[in-house]
Amino acid sequence: MAGGDADALSRGHQSVGIFVLTSISEPKTVNLKCDPDRAVDLRERFPDDIFPGFHMNKKHWNTVSVMGSLDHKQIRELIQHSYSLVLDSLSKNVKATLI
User: Fold this and answer.
1) Which 3 state secondary structure label does DSSP give 89?
2) Mean pLDDT for the chain overall
């Protein structure tokens, strides 16, 4: 995700936080928000596919290779976890704009 070749995906109101940042060049990766303890665990369990978040707060973000050994179900679950963390951090007013 170097050199500005990244797209941020967000949904809804402008104040909604980013829950995924994806590379548009090789290698195909996504930055996903993650619970800090889980982030460390995932990096240890999948050292070839999950790394500290590139250009992000490494405590809260992982960079995930989507072309590695993780299957689609695992990647989908990590995306959902990221989205849930961001959604849970939003105020009731902002959440109401997303429904």
Assistant:
1) helix
2) 83
Helix or strand run (H / E) with residue 10: none
Q: How many CB atoms lie within 10 A of CB 92?
A: 6
As a whole-number percent, the residues of the chain with pLDDT over 70 amount to 78
Hey, how many other C-beta atoms are within 10 angstroms of the C-beta on 75? 17
For residue 95, which phi and psi values (nearest 5 degrees)?
Answer: -60, -40
Report pTM: 0.76
C-alpha span between 67 and 47 (Å, rounded): 14
Once rounded to an integer, what is the mean pLDDT over residues 3-11?
Answer: 48
The backbone region for 95, taken as left when phi is positive above 0, alpha when psi lies in -120 to 50, beta otherwise, is alpha
Q: Could you give the domains of the chain? A: 2-92 (3.90.1150.30)
Residue 21 three-state SS: strand
